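thread: overnight batch results

M.L. [08:02]
morning all. the overnight job finished for the chain we discussed friday. pasting input first so we're all looking at the same thing
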Amino acid sequence: MPDKPTILLQLDTDALPSVFDRVVAVDSGVQHVFSYGGITPENVVPLVHGCIFTRGPADLKHTAIFVGGSDVLAGEAIVHAIRAAMNPFTVSVMLDSNGANTTAAAAVRAASRHLDLSKTTSLVLGGTGPVGQRVARLLARHGGHVRIGSREKARAVAVAAAIRVDLPHANVEAISTAVKTDGPSALEGRELVVAAGAAGALLLPEKIRAACKTVKVAIDLNGVPPAGIEGIGLTDKGIDCGGVIGYGALGVGGTKMKIHRAAIQQLFERNDIIFDIDQIYALAELQP
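M.L. [08:03]
and the structure it wrote out:
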C-alpha cells in the first residue's frame, strides 16, 4: 500500500499565514499545506488533535507542523502548547517565526567558514531582537566571547542571563550601544560583528568599523536600506569589504533557504522531531 501523502500544518500567529513559508514548503516537496492564521495557545489544541488522531501511529511521520509569524515569543508559546497537547501521539514540529532560527543559523554558519568560533570574539548588534538573540546563543555555544549589544543595556543583560540558563558556561557580556560614542568600545577587540537589528537602521558606521583593526568578518542581516553595517552590500557573500570579509542579507539568504528546505524535508522522516535553533543549526553545519 503506498505511503500516505505528506501534510504540513502551517500555524501562523499573524492574521494572514505567510505566503513565503507556504511556498518554501511546497518547494520542499510537501504535498499538502493547510494554513491557519491568528493562532494562539488557546485555539491551537484542536488543530493539533486533528493532526495526531486522524492517522495511525505508523503514518504520523507523514504529518508535521510548522509554526511561523512575525512574533517569535508568540511562536515559542505556540510550540509549548503544541507539545503539551501531543500526548501520547506526536508529529514533528518546526519553529521559524520571522525566519529567526534559519537566518541566525545561516549567519553563524557563514562566520564559521572563516573563523574558529570556539576562540572568536564577537559582537552582536541588535542582540536583543529575535535573530540577534539566536545568533548570540549559537556563538556562545561554540565557546567564544560574545558581546550582546542593545540600545537598552537592561535588555541585553536579560538576554545574556537567559543564555546562561541554558548554557551555564557561556561567555557573554551585555553592553550598551545607545549612542555613537559606544561604538568603538563595543567593537574593541572583536573579530566578528553581526548586525541583526531592525530593518533600515544603521548600527555600525564605516568610520568606526574601519578604525577597528581586529575585525575579520562582518555580517549584516538587514535587507532594507540603509545597511546595518555601512560598507557591506546586500548581495556581498564572503568578499573583501574594506579589509574585512563581508556578508550581506542576500549573501546569507541562499544558505538560509537551503536550511529551511532541509528542515522541512526532515520533518517527514520521523514523527518526534522538534526543530528549534540548536537542531536547525545542526542542519546548517551540513551546508558547504
